[in-house]
């Protein structure tokens, strides 16, 4: 079942329930803020203090970063992670598939507000497939007459039993930029997180995974050669109004992206896609 609903304050979202899973997607930002497969724990972490307010990014779920990742290259006054995550998208397709899974497509095109921030015409679509696994595909169409460069990301927050239990596999040998020390290193093996972490890995490995105390989650992607690993840890969480003080203990962000060296040029009439599939299995 796919239904259009609103929260108490009229914040619109799409509610999906089928034999495999349930999911919720806000029209603002085409933001998947809940996905839970039957008999599995919630895949996505959502802050207990998240804002569901027009124009404010939702802390948790899958924020979409576009057309730049992180701070804008040359203008700090422009919004961090671009404008797609706070823009109102349009639901253009909803369908129940023959196997009982569900598919919705949302769309965002340029507007007077986006042109004031980034002077290009574009069309973005997000396809969300809710089944035994969660699959999301973002397509960036260049509808302008000039080529443009984009940084795009699924800024996914995963729910974990405890951050101390988390082991991330698949990054061994990858070169990463540490945003906290502004230095470059090479990952030695399994990554675990015991302090504030903010890194962009460059990797051609299309399959990563992480485990916590009970589950292992696989992240299979196409169209991306960078992965951001982020946890704000205690002090930063205390300073963030939309994060509870201990929120950092139950989340990790592993962001399938086109970030830093992996930004992409898209020619007029061309399309660039990133797709990712998340699936959980009990350990
Ligand atoms: C991460 C960045 O992807 O997002 C961090 O690497 C940033 O530097 C974090 O702090 C959260 O960003 P925001 O804008 O949602 O608070």
* Main sheet attributes: strand count, strand direction, barrel closure: 8 strands, antiparallel
| SS class | mainly beta
Q: What is the overall pLDDT average?
A: 98
Helix tally equals 2
Helix fraction bin: under 10%
**C-alpha Rg (nearest Å):** 18 Å
Percent in strands: 35-45%
Bound ligands: 6-O-phosphono-beta-D-glucopyranose
How far apart the termini lie comes to: 31 Å
Question: Which overall shape is indicated by the principal axes computed on the Cα atoms?
Answer: globular
Task: Provide a descriptive summary of the structure in words.
With 283 residues, the protein is mainly beta. Helices cover 5% and strands 45% of the residues. The chain has helices at 112-117, 233-239, and strands at residues 2-6, 12-17, 21-26, 31-37, 64-65, 90-96, 102-109, 122-130, 134-142, 148-150, 152-154, 157-159, 167-169, 175-178, 183-186, 197-202, 207-211, 215-222, 226-231, 251-258, 264-266, 271-282. Bound molecules: 6-O-phosphono-beta-D-glucopyranose. 6-O-phosphono-beta-D-glucopyranose is lined by residues 57, 70, 80-81, 155, 179, 198, 228, 230, 255.
